[in-house]
Amino acid sequence: MMLFLLFALMLLLMLLGMHIGLAMVASSLLYLLFHLSGSLALPLGVIPQKMVYGVDSFPLLAVPLFMLAGELMSAGGITARIVRFATSLVGWITGGLAHVVIVVNMIMAGMSGSAVADAAATGSVLIPAMIKARFPPAFAAAVTAAAATIGPIIPPSIPFVLIGTIAQVSIGRLFLGGAVPGVIMGLFLMAASYWVAKRHGYAVEKRVTGWEILASFWPAIPALLMPLIIMGGILSGIATPTEAAVLGVVYAMFLSVGVYRELSLRDVYRICWRMGSSTAAIMITISGATLLGFVATAEQMGPKLIQFFLSLSNNPYVLLFIINVALLILGWVMEPVPIILLTVPIFFPVLTRLGLDPIHLGVVMTLNLMIGLLTPFVGLNVFITAAIARTPVIQVARALLIFIAALVLVLFLISYVPQLVVWLPNLVFGK
Amino acid sequence: MAFKKCIEVVSQTITALLMIFMVLLTLLQVVSRYAFEAAIPWTEELARLDLIYVTFFGSIVAFQRREHLRVEVLVHALPAGLRKWLGVAVDLASMLVLGVVVWQGIPLLIKFWPLLSAALEWPTTVFYFPAVFCCFVLLVYTAVDVVAVVRGTGDRGTPEPAQEAPR
User: Fold this and answer.
1) Three-state SS at A374
2) Which of A210, A327, B31, B67 could form a disulfide with A368 if both were Cys (CB 3.0 to 4.6 A apart)?
3) What is the per-residue pLDDT across A37-65, written as a single tens digit (0 to 9) for each?
4) Cβ of A42 under 8 Å from any chain B Cβ?
């Protein structure tokens, strides 16, 4: 009962517009005040203590570092070069620039770790180009928003860093686990664009020769090396994900300031505090969630929830279905990071106990939450791309339906064919 | 407004410097392990400490930029008048929470002073200081905001458009 009140209060404060991290602290505070005496009494001093404890973590350092690397790359002139390469590669297929958007996102995914950053970076270049090629603005915005969800699935990925840290599973494995599903997402989205483009007869770019592809490949090489540096560092055991991230930052600095000369040191300084601020927005939520998690543990939340889930079903795949539906609904009203912080400690123990691979679950959850970025309310991707295309959000939402359908299809595909996720990490790291 | 501007500039500078320091530290950690074949024992702890400082000082920046995660579905559906007073109520509640963190944090800072951290052997107080200090700054900041809104002179600011990526 207390547990229910704890979460009900938190949700109420969130809905009233309090910052999510603070709402978590507020409800924990009220819980502690009610239990100042008695056998379960905890001093209020645990509040600042747990808040700091939650962010005192070396793996979490990867979050600001990946953000920094991604922002330096996308602001530093890399996007334009990748766009040119992708255009020569897939621009001639029916659907034209729509495929380019998707391929660019699959490549860029290897750099930034954030869907929203990807939507902004590729959208500002490609949406105007698509509108110029007479694509309906709503379609251009929709395909860009949908393609950006691939970012956090193909490594590196900030949600995977968070899940790996909270659930104590290998971040390297999670990274690799996302590779195959990310490519499948790309293929499904391309199929959807092909179908829409065929029906409405959208423009295609002209077909280019093999030589021209090579010519556009050359300038894109430094950008394509980025994921190799990061993943290579992790897989070869030279670097932890955090250290690989810092190698990414140094490489991005070298490219954007040294080679392409598109960023001044002043720009770098500005990117530093902006990304520090974006980091803090995530970290403060983690801080509050740690305190809340501590209080919920004192209230025996874990065992109670496990009992509840097992009363629903013993079959991990049935539970996975229930969890998927629950997350899709949550994703409508909340952003991925707070959902991860709230639900990973709940879902992981239950499902791994029933024999589900934690890597599989982590990738399924993340893909699910990315779909939430495409729904109105908190669908940041949609707001950004609609703003760039200067189109009402509601029209973009309508054009998005087919892409959301494609992604939900991928979601259920990887939910029920776990091999698609775990095959690659098991191959590389062993069982 | 001068107060807010001042906090803005100082917190941005601190956050930027902390981020740069973080990059250098983690880089030093990788390089030292391979180039000098000896890991420096304190880099990891100092980097974690740096992250704690980025979290709380960056939080002040995020507060100004209205970048903190929140649910706005319901709030946006409300009529403007109601939204204003709900905002004030939520701000007051937030101040209460921040106040508790500061009030409970100060004795903690004193208590932890004799405890030394594992690698750096610094007083553990330095790990908790940014939480207490920055919650205090946010408390004052929110108070200034609330006063401005109640008086009707407040500019609550609009969230920065996210697509305004540096180019």
Assistant:
1) coil
2) A327
3) 766 677 888 999 999 998 998 888 988 99
4) no
